[in-house]
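Question thread 4412

I'm putting together a teaching handout and wanted feedback from people who do this every day. The idea is simple: show students a protein as raw sequence, then show them the structure tokens that encode its fold, then repeat with a second protein so they can compare. Below is the first pair exactly as I plan to print it.
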Amino acid sequence: MEFDRPDVIAEVTAAFAAYERALVADDVEAVLGFFADRAIRFGIADQQAGIEEQTRWRRAQGGLPPGRRLEDTTICGYGTSTAIVTTLFGYPGSDVLGRQSQTWVRLPVGWRIVHAHVSEPAGVSSGVRSPSGTRS
């Protein structure tokens, strides 16, 4: 198996950047388009199994706090059809960095997220809302 093929890294880098732009712009439909139908997502105070659950959850959420920044983004390619993206994220006024990881797979429709996980260090909050609308 080849690791970190330049073509795979370039394609996933572009897909991840487009995903991040859609996420920051609160373009729910575009964000949903980056997920595979059977994707599993674990959030800070939520979880979704499949695109239907994620669609309901995303449509009920407001946008992210302004000023989201990423740090230490890493993309690792595995062969020609799988990549793992990890990054830290933060917001102005806070030194807390959340963690985000995504598994991207090349499907017939293009690169899609099949698994995602978002977390924060225990006992802190970035101000991102939970599914109930409360800050978590």
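The second pair follows. I'd like the answer to focus on this one:
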Amino acid sequence: MTTVIINEKTKEGELLLEFLRTQNYITIDEKIPSPSLNRSMNEAKNGKVIRGKNVHDLLSKLKE
């Protein structure tokens, strides 16, 4: 098995993926994050995180 990493954000990468999807002898395994992971990533991007000064402070805030 060979792994090829294609930058989908470039025009060339998009064209290559379009071509590969039309080939019946190639399997593209696209990892799609779960809804809960998407929700967590959006919360982190928007700054909805719990911060602590150190590990003990963080753990005490998480227990609240």
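Top answer:
Good format. For the second protein you could add a caption like this: Residues 11-63 form one domain. Helices lie at 11-21, 35-45, 55-63.
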